[in-house]
Design brief:
2 domains, four-stranded antiparallel β-sheet, 17 strands
C-alpha cells in the first residue's frame, strides 16, 4: 500500500485519511464561503481566535475562544441570543448542550452566533454535557493587550467536570466574518490562533481562494 507523509510533522499517512493522526494537519483542503480552521488534536484548556494581522498594532479578528478544545458530538440546543440588527459578537449569552458521543452534530450557527463546529461521531468517548458561554464586550476586556485588539467577543466552551479531554479526531471550526468587518481585510493577513496558558500561538487556517488573504503561522505572545 502506498503511503504519503504529513507536510507539517513528517508522519506517515494512509492514502484515504483526511487528517494527520499525529498533529491534526488536514491532508486535503477544500474551499468554502467562510474562513475555516481545523482544531489540532490536543489536551488542556485552550482558546481559539481568528486574528487580523496588521503592521502596528495587530488586531484579533472575531476571537472564537473556544474552548478547552472540548467540542461536542451531540444535539445542540441554542436560543437566539442576539436581537435583530445587532452584530452577533456584541452580546453575551450561555447555552447547555447534551452530548451524544456516537452521533455527528453541528454546534453553533453562522447566522446567530457567528461560528459553527462540525463534530464527527466518536469525537468523545462518552456522553456528557457541554456549556457554551459567549462573552459580552465587557467580559472580553481581560483578553485585551498592547499587541492585539479584540475584534468581536470570545466564545468559551467547557465539558462538565473535565479540565483535559483528548479529541477522537479533528474538529473543523467555521467563522462567519460580518460584512462591517470585511472592509478592513482586503490588504491584510488573516490567520487563527490558539490561546493556551497566557500565550497566543498561530494555528492552521483554511481561507477560500476567493478571499484576498494569506495564511500565517507564527507564535504570538499575549503579554
Amino acid at each position: 500500500m502506498e503511503h504519503k507523509f504529513c507536510k507539517n510533522c513528517g508522519a506517515k499517512l494512509n492514502p484515504d485519511v483526511k487528517f494527520c493522526a499525529s498533529c491534526g494537519t488536514e491532508v486535503s483542503v477544500s474551499s468554502g464561503q467562510a474562513a475555516t480552521m481545523t482544531a489540532p488534536r490536543v489536551t488542556g484548556s485552550h482558546s481559539v481566535s481568528a486574528l487580523k494581522r496588521k503592521t502596528k498594532p495587530m488586531k484579533i479578528l472575531i476571537p472564537v475562544i473556544a474552548i478547552v478544545l472540548v467540542l461536542v458530538a451531540g444535539i445542540c440546543v441554542l436560543q437566539r441570543f442576539f436581537s435583530s440588527g445587532e452584530n452577533s459578537f456584541e452580546k453575551g449569552a450561555t447555552s447547555e448542550t447534551r452530548i451524544k458521543a456516537n452521533k455527528d452534530a453541528t454546534v453553533g450557527s453562522l447566522k446567530e452566533t457567528g461560528w459553527q463546529l462540525q463534530i464527527p461521531a466518536n469525537t468523545f468517548k462518552e456522553d456528557s454535557k457541554l456549556n457554551m458561554r459567549v462573552l459580552s464586550v465587557a467580559e472580553s476586556a481581560e483578553y485585551q493587550s498592547a499587541d492585539f485588539e479584540l475584534y468581536g467577543t470570545p466564545v468559551e466552551i467547557k465539558l462538565e467536570n473535565r479540565k483535559n479531554v483528548r479529541l477522537g479526531g479533528a474538529v473543523p471550526i467555521t467563522v462567519q466574518i460580518p460584512d462591517d468587518l470585511l472592509k478592513d481585510l482586503a490588504a491584510e493577513e488573516l490567520f487563527f490562533a490558539v490561546y493556551y496558558k497566557e500565550t497566543l500561538t498561530a494555528a492552521r487556517s483554511q481561507i477560500p481562494k476567493s478571499q484576498a488573504y494569506s495564511r500565517k503561522k507564527k507564535p504570538l505572545s499575549r503579554n
